[in-house]
């Protein structure tokens, strides 16, 4: 699992994180990302975590200082302010073990062609601005993505979820809990949670059959429909529906549907007191072993371990 791989960064002492501020300092995207990381550095101390900030010009013209994580950050409202020296910025970013972007920065990297074949979380409001060069990026409607060594986040309020997820993956749940308490944050949304209007914004007019199919899935979590049923209800053959999902969502309908159900199950495990068996049934799993196996394959832990995480971190 990509998030599990991030834990190796804890061995770096200090771990050096660089945020390239390509926008305004008071935007929600910037504050949501910077504040949790700043607090993590405060709690952990300079010998374990160092968070630095650079402007695009200063970063591109800088020396050979090494960072372990580099993120290009700008709010979606600043998408038209792409740095003139973007290519130089990208070349330097590639020197870090993990690198990527938040908000409008994701659009700039995609347009530059460096996210081809990479699962990418792009702000839904910027889908219309995607250059044809960026069509090879695998845009998802998720809040953020970790694909190999590439990190992308849709920005806005999701920036806090993204930063806190990185903190937990690298330094553990205890450090994350300290930051959540300091910032009065009750719950951290997972990377699989979706921008609510992303699919409609991107595909609504061009691919109404696709959005209709996803809406059917979302409305039938407890009693899942078959792929053939969904195809028939939206007026497509099974093969046509599978082609649409593969082309635009990078997944087969059955896999996408399974992940929707598992994401709902994870939410119920963390936010309700329903038993694990009840949660499985509410999300369309008649077999407890199938539920546990599928859940573990997607999230890296079992439903029981997920529920235990809630009990050991009641503020989550």
Describe the protein in words.
The structure is a single chain. By secondary structure, the chain is an alpha/beta fold. The protein folds into three domains: 2-183, Class I glutamine amidotransferase (GATase) domain (Rossmann fold); 198-255, Arc Repressor Mutant, subunit A (Orthogonal Bundle), CATH 1.10.10.60; 257-312, Arc Repressor Mutant, subunit A. Helix content is 49%, strand content 12%. It is built from 15 helices and eight strands. It has helices at 2-6, 28-44, 56-60, 86-93, 104-111, 158-171, 173-183, 198-203, 208-219, 227-234, 238-249, 253-271, 276-282, 288-299, 303-312; strands spanning 15-21, 49-54, 69-74, 98-103, 119-121, 138-140, 144-147, 150-153. The strands form two sheets. A six-stranded mixed beta sheet has the order 2-1-3-4-8-7. A two-stranded parallel ribbon has the order 5-6. Helix 6 runs antiparallel to helix 7, helix 9 crosses helix 10 (227-234) and helix 12 (253-271) crosses helix 14 (288-299). The longest helix has 19 residues, at 253-271. The two termini are 22 Å apart.
- Total helix count? 15
Per the principal axes of the C-alpha atoms, what is the gross shape?
globular
Strands, total number = 8
Integer average pLDDT: 87
- Estimate nothing, just give the exact number of structural domains: 3
Give the strand content.
5-15%
CATH topology of the largest domain: Rossmann fold
Helix/strand/pairing category:
alpha/beta
Tell me the helix content: 40-55%
From N to C, what is the helix and strand string? HEHEHEHEHEEEEHHHHHHHHHH
Q: Class of the largest domain in CATH?
A: Alpha Beta
Task: Please describe the biggest sheet, giving its number of strands, its sense, and whether it closes into a barrel.
Answer: 6 strands, mixed
Rg over alpha carbons: 20 Å
Q: What's the quaternary structure here?
A: single chain
Low-confidence stretches: none
Report how far apart the termini are: 22 Å
> Largest beta sheet: what is the strand line-up?
2-1-3-4-8-7
